[in-house]
Amino acid sequence: MSSPGRTAVVTAALYAAAAVAALIIAATGPFALDGDGPADLPLYLLMVAHAAWAIALLASPRRFSRRRLRRALLAPEVLLAVTAVFFLFNYIYALNANMEYVERFIEDGTLRLALDTATERLNAFIRFVPFFVVNIVCYLFPRIRMRRLLASSLLDHVPTHSRACAVRRELVFWSLPIAALAAFVQAIAFPNFLVLDGIGVFGWVALVPLFLLIAVNPYGRAVFYGTWFGTLLTMQSNFWLATFNLVSLQFAVVLFFGYFVLFMLVAVWIYKRITPLRFLVFPLAWTLFEMLRSSGFLGYPWTLLGHSQFASTALIQVSAITGVWGVSFLVLLVNAAIAESLTRYLFSPHDSRAVWRPLVTGASVVAVVWVGGAFALFAASRAEPPERTARVALVQQNTDPRQAQYRTTLRILQRLTDEALEEEPDLVAWSETAFVPNIRRWAAEDPPGSLTPVVNDFLDYQEKIGQWLLTGNDDYELIRTLDGREVQRNGYNAAVLFDDTGGRRETYRKIRLVPFTEYFPYRDTLPWVYEILQEFDVYLWEPGRERTVFHHPKFTFSTPICFEDVFPNEVRQFVNAGADVILNLTNDYWSLTEVQAKQHFAGALFRAVENRRPMLRSTASGLTSHIDPYGKIHGTLPYYEEAWMTADIGVSDNPPTTLYTRLGDWFPVASGVGLLGLVIFGIRRERR
User: Fold this and answer.
1) Residues 547-563 pLDDT 10s
2) CB count, 10 Å around CB of 84?
3) Could you tell me where in the chain the CATH 3.60.110.10 domains are found?
4) What is the pLDDT of residues 334-366, one digit of tens each?
């Protein structure tokens, strides 16, 4: 048997052994699966995939060809990437074993009872070991023992003795781990599980390895590595979604996998066909991509690249003109410029001016923006103070509304509020669903219902303190026939304002709901998805329809609820409706991690700068805070503690209207137009 034939047989045997070993571990012994559930499906899919590749190797011809060699090299990469993603799913959920919110699903058999988190993590490692071992061996062996053969096969038309070939070879050989490293560094640039504040400087270089890989790999492999990068980044940045809902992380990863596939298919195609100004392709395309993935029912503007720079106050002042999108563009521009200069230096003739021109361009643009932002901050420090001030007490009760401990939570809120009232605030703000029982419903129940007493206690307390009070609350709307018969009851996530006499003044019903976990509009079109959501006890709301501006005697304000404050255009519309102050009500208690709360805060901070409005955040627990119109942080409360703070905010009679507030998301649209211009220019140049 020839050498290629023996290699194929040995490799097939390894993959078959891995599939069999994983099956034995899952079926018998101390790490056996205790029943089959949806969470076990990835494990069985991996068994089938590895067995199928073993069969394909045995069935393929034994003769050598470059095409077969490339396919044999790619398969372990793909299987290793998929194994890593499925393992991360299992490991992340193992971290949450036996959490209280999970236990209610055990009774109906939706989930199997977890042991403890240490045991579940060990189970995840043991069950995936066979797949990791075989794929790592088959990934490393040819790259270590067959380097010359692989170089001649993978690096066509490049002299094997050149420096360019040596560098290109290493990049191509190790593209998978390099892309994974890039995703990790980018995740660390945001608030993360290692450094809570994130390391913003990493954001300026994290994408350089990815862009180098795209430059040296052919189109298909470049798309693969770009998608692998995006999927890993999503999981590392959003791991806490596993504590929000039993399906949230899966939906997010599948969604962003699809997003990055489509984005890379287009962006890499353009990049490969444009020579002049090629380093602008990804800054323009990715900026547009960030806006598109933040739009529509599935919009999710979390960990935008610009968010990594939330602590750079001077730099982010450009948001008043471009929105957060401009900051993302700057980060992308520097990454792309570094990568392009390195590419020219390594793989092109040494024209020093052409080599470093992209880097000089990127650095110059950032320097100009930073200086402009510093000047804006200096001018603000010399400006006249606002005509009016108002004091708002922000109360953080540190409880989870899902636990239904309504009476206990109310007592905590009352105690903290009583303490805060000593500071004589003009308004007391409680968090999202701080008081859960529906005030409109239970106060009107006749005869009184089970929650009527606690609702009446709340109303009596609010009237007694003689103070304006804002609270998150459930709300509802009855749909009746002409004869008064109830046919439908729509539930809303709401904010309710009471005046200092106890009267209910105004209500805001959350418009932008979390897809799949708060809102799913395709019940009739996709009934099977709706059934999955119901199986996992997802409670769905109706979206509100009106952008309420609350009127206090001293100022006006609007209350984007929960993650609404990370949507630039949503908050902008509140400001255009007349809000002097942005007052976000949030419950980040559920995540049980400071990382999620800090990421939320980092994304929300840009709304103050974009609209030049003070921003207050009142959270059940998260990062209760006061941010001024220039993004400076004037106060925060500790995470996961019962606490309160007061914020003195300045209110101008004629607040400024920024270019972003006027025009909205013009910058990513302009980026799309610029990208189209590059494509047209590149096509015309090719035809000459």
Assistant:
1) 999 999 999 999 999 99
2) 20
3) 388-511+547-651
4) 999 999 999 988 887 666 668 889 999 999 999
Nearest residue to 617 (alpha-carbon basis) of 681, 553, 560: 560
The tokens of 633 are what? 């942080």
Compute the distance between CA of residue 317 and CA of residue 378 in angstroms, rounded to an integer: 12
Amino acid at 520: F
CB distance 501 to 549 below 8 Å: no
Between CA 75 and CA 135, with CA 185 as vertex, the angle to 5 degrees is 20
224-262 burial: b if 16+ Cβ within 10 Å, else e: bbbbbbbbbbbbbbbbbbbbbbbbbbbbbbebbbebbbe
Q: Determine contact, residues 434/471, Cβ cutoff 8 Å.
A: yes
d(CA 412, CA 435): 11
Q: What is the DSSP letter of 400?
A: -
Q: Are 470 and 433 in contact (CB under 8 A)?
A: no
Q: How much is the pTM?
A: 0.92
| Angstrom distance (rounded) from CA 411 to CA 471 | 14
Determine the topology of domain 388-511+547-651 in CATH: Nitrilase/N-carbamoyl-D-aminoacid amidohydrolase (3.60.110)
Burial of 543 (0-12, 13-18, 19+ CB in 10 A): middle
Chain mean position to CA 496:
28
What tokens does 457 get?
Answer: 């206690």
Query: What pLDDT, on the 0 to 100 scale, is given for residue 4?
Result: 60
Q: Backbone dihedral region of 27: left (phi > 0), alpha (psi from -120 to 50 degrees) or beta?
A: alpha
| CA angle 49–51–55, rounded 5-degree value | 115
Catalytic residues, by residue number, are 432, 510, 562
Cα–chain-centroid distance for residue 188? Answer: 13
Per-residue b or e along 126-159, where b marks 16 or more CB atoms closer than 10 Å to that residue's CB:
ebbbbbeebbeebbeebeeeeeeebbebbbeebe
Buried/exposed code over 649-666 (b: 16+ C-beta within 10 A; e: otherwise): bbbbeebeebebbeebbe
* End-to-end CA gap in the chain: 53
